[in-house]
Write a structure and sequence with these properties.
The chain has 12 helices and 19 strands. The protein is α/β, with parallel strands linked by helices and 375 residues long. A hairpin with a 2-residue loop joins strand 15 and strand 16. Bound molecules: flavin-adenine dinucleotide. Flavin-adenine dinucleotide binds next to helix 1, strand 2, strand 3, strand 13 and helix 8.
Length: 375
């Protein structure tokens, strides 16, 4: 089958690898003039690590294996914890990894047979002769049996296949970057009053950080001197990371999500953020794109007829539950004011200590199981 994959982000690259491994002729079209990963760092949970390993992509030695993911208050006092070391014994490791390193690892697995076209933004898709589709970028065209839209949050392919969809603002804006800071194998997210800060190891002596702040959508970003005044209450790892930030963080985005997943139409299938952009609260957006890519390639083993329905049936319940989990996980951050923040923190401290880990375990187990079933 001839497949055009639009977008060479984490999802599109993984799809190109998975589809070519299953014997399809793949054309990969990317808007950027070079393969590049925009972003700072990521958590790769065991379901994503497992899915990539099924394609021979090994993150060992590329990312930093994580022992613990702590949720703490602004002062650094732990409110809840996921013992990633314990989960690793069952499902394999979680990694803190830079986006370029992850991108590069997937790219290395891309076979030469994939026809790559960089610097072309797809702007239209048309049905051509019977059962074929034509993909357009300016004056250039590519013919295929199927198109995979992996073109991210502001997907043009989603718009073409499913019409305009509203992206919902999650109420928080996010700054991200990397600082020189050794944090061992511990990742932490700390919650303050209308703000939160995450710190994840990327290498032995660097860490990825994100700063989130509840503000109205599109609020103009302040200068670093002003921005940092909103984060002065942070101690512990978050405080150390903030102290190490020299200037305004390099990346700034409002957090946006799709209300519910959409999967495409006829011979156009969507994956990753194009299909189900979600908030990053459980660190699973890229993981879902990777799982999508692997299941989509498997779905095409049974031909194009009914592929969209099979793709949706396999992915919708899984993705929807993770998307809703991420949405719920963000609710506590919206709490404002010193009294309400203290109440929230004491309720979290009083919650059963294993509750967060049980939720994570179930989320990871389902993905590991799914990948085993489709391989
Ligand atoms: C703050 C933040 C933190 C996150 N942390 C995590 C985490 O810890 N773990 C995790 O698993 N996920 C995380 N995510 C989510 C993750 O970043 C995304 O879900 C993931 O990158 C989606 O991959 P994708 O391939 O679908 O889209 P993208 O990575 O956005 O790739 C889309 C590609 O398509 C290209 N493109 C766009 N339009 C066109 C066009 N018209 N024609 C051709 N090419 C086009 C783009 O240039 C890009 O290369 C986080 C997200 C955010 C915002």
């Amino acid at each position: 089958m001839q497949v055009v994959v639009v977008g060479a982000g984490i999802g599109g690259l993984t799809a190109a690898v998975a589809l070519s491994r299953r014997g399809h002729a793949v054309t990969l079209i990317e808007r950027a003039p070079a393969f590049e990963a925009i972003g700072a760092g990521l958590l790769m949970a065991p379901n994503a690590v497992h899915a990539l390993a099924s394609l021979g992509i090994d993150l060992d030695g590329v990312g930093v294996p994580l022992d613990t993911l702590d949720l703490a208050d602004a002062g650094g006092r732990v409110l809840g914890s996921v013992n990633l070391g314990r989960l690793a014994r069952e499902f394999g490791p979680s990694f803190g990894i830079t986006r370029p390193a992850l991108h590069e690892s997937i790219l290395r697995a891309l076979p030469d047979s994939v026809s790559v076209h960089l610097g072309h933004a797809v702007d239209a898709i048309a049905s051509s002769v019977k059962d074929r589709v034509t993909v357009h970028s300016g004056d250039l065209t590519w013919e295929a049996d199927l198109v995979v839209g992996a073109d991210g949050l502001h997907s043009r392919i989603r718009e073409i296949a499913c019409g305009p969809q509203t992206l919902r603002y999650a109420g928080e804006t996010c700054w991200r970057g990397i600082v020189p800071l050794a944090v061992g194998h511990r990742a932490v997210e700390q919650w303050g009053d209308g703000t939160r800060v995450g710190v994840f190891p990327m290498t032995a002596d660097t860490a990825y950080y994100y700063l989130l702040r509840c503000v109205p959508q599109g609020a103009p970003p302040p200068a670093w001197d002003e921005l940092r005044t909103h984060f002065t209450a942070y101690r512990g790892l978050a405080g150390e990371a903030i102290a190490a930030i020299g200037d305004v963080p390099p990346l700034h985005h409002d957090l946006l999500e799709l209300d519910r997943p959409v999967w495409g139409a006829e011979r156009v299938l969507l994956l990753g953020d194009a299909a189900h952009a979600m908030t990053p609260n459980v660190g699973q957006g890229a993981a879902m794109a990777i799982e999508d890519a692997i299941t989509l390639a498997r779905v095409l083993d049974d031909g194009i007829d009914g592929a969209l329905a099979r793709h949706r049936t396999l992915r919708e319940p899984r993705v929807r539950s993770v998307q809703l989990l991420a949405r719920r996980a963000g609710l506590g951050v919206k709490v404002r004011g010193a009294w309400a923040t203290r109440m929230r923190d004491s309720m979290m401290r009083a919650a059963p200590s294993q509750a967060t880990e049980r939720t994570w375990r179930a989320m990871i187990a389902e993905g590991v199981d799914l990948v085993a079933r489709v391989n």
